[in-house]
Design goal:
Helices cover 0% and strands 52% of the residues. The protein has 4 domains: 40 residues, no CATH class; 104 residues, Immunoglobulin-like (Sandwich); 99 residues, Immunoglobulins (Immunoglobulin-like, Sandwich), CATH 2.60.40; 74 residues, Immunoglobulins (Immunoglobulin-like, Sandwich). The chain has no helices and 26 strands.
């Protein structure tokens, strides 16, 4: 009835009453000890947590045994998995030992797209530490927190080689011998090699001579000896640091021998499949390393080797090339001894 007032009073323990006005009618609404919500008003839903709106890769950052004085970095990717757009407003870290770079904030991230940033850690003293990355977005005032752990150790610079010295058996004048040098960074700091050189008559190196090696990484270099006379030669191989000084020195010894007039003629079975040619390799040892002696692909299953030292035994392996110049594995080795003149 218009102009009349209706009310209903109820009494409950631990309940409170709030007066609401709807179309001129006064009602008492019974509510529990929670915030009062007027009738006819939509209740605000809580903002979705940031963790449900974005995907962070990796979900935790770890730096392990960083040498004191060095700075290591990692890349973190933030992907918007929400249906709408997401704004990354602020990214902070809890320790000055960690730094955030590589992102300009604020930035809008569309659905299904990503943004990346770089976190770096500079080890100042030995030990362990933990921290947090806080990522604040437009989804609310509660940031997404990413754990960061780091450990540091005393810096160690160490370069090791697969051999303490290299010795070449008698190599015929006019030909050459080759051995493989493997250099490994056995320390926990990056190594910068500025050059690898060989001294002594007839000695040389080929391959990568200026390279940066991360801990555990290695590089292969060929050490060559091409005598110009039938005499004993000595020399050394030096690995230089980009920071100055020598990282490693390896002694080299070799002998030149008079060339023989004899030749070694090799024959092998033809490949059962069509090939573009064959490659012939030679070594003074059965275990290698083997040096290629055919400058170009050999068209048939035979090869004549010259420039050999009298009285020496040589070992040969052969591989095949397909139409795309892909090389097969080596054949089993065979040996040949050059007669003495």
């Amino acid at each position: 009835m218009v102009g009349m007032y209706f009310y209903k009073c109820l009494s409950f323990s631990r309940l409170r009453r709030s007066l609401l006005t709807l179309s001129g009618v006064l009602l008492f609404a019974i509510q529990a000890n929670s915030q009062s919500v007027p009738n006819g008003t939509a209740k605000a839903e809580p903002a979705a947590p940031a963790s449900g709106l974005m995907e962070v890769t990796p979900d935790a950052v770890s730096f392990v045994d960083v040498p004191v004085g060095d700075t290591y970095t990692q890349t973190v990717r933030i992907t918007n998995v929400n249906e709408g757009t997401l704004q990354i407003r602020k990214i902070t870290v809890s320790s000055p030992n960690f730094q955030i770079t590589g992102i300009l904030l604020p930035v809008i991230v569309a659905h299904g797209t990503s943004q990346t940033f770089t976190i770096s850690y500079q080890a100042k003293t030995q030990g362990r530490m933990e921290g947090q990355i806080s990522i604040l977005t437009s989804s609310g005032d509660v940031p997404l927190v990413l754990g960061v752990k780091a450990s540091s150790a005393a810096g160690q610079t160490e370069l090791t080689a697969n051999a303490a010295a290299f010795e070449f058996e008698d190599v015929a004048v006019g030909s050459s011998g080759k051995k493989e040098l493997v250099l490994t960074n056995s320390g926990n700091r990056d190594l910068k090699i500025s050059g690898i050189s060989a001294s002594g008559a007839g000695f040389s190196v080929s391959g990568a001579t200026a390279v940066n090696l991360s801990p555990g990484q290695n590089v292969n270099v060929d050490v060559n000896f091409a005598p110009k006379s039938a005499a004993r030669q000595t020399g050394s191989l030096k690995v230089s640091s980009a920071e100055g000084g020598s990282l490693l020195t390896i002694p080299l010894t070799a002998g030149g021998a008079p060339p023989s007039q004899s030749t070694v003629k090799l024959n092998w079975e033809e490949s059962p499949v069509t090939v573009a040619g064959y490659v012939v390799y030679r070594s003074a040892e059965a275990s290698g390393p083997y040096m290629r002696v055919s400058s170009s692909a050999v068209p048939s299953a035979e090869y004549v080797d010259t420039g050999l030292a009298a009285g020496h035994t040589y070992y040969y392996v052969v591989s095949s090339l397909d139409a795309d110049q892909v090389e097969s594995e080596y054949s089993p080795p065979i040996s040949a001894t050059v007669p003495v003149r």
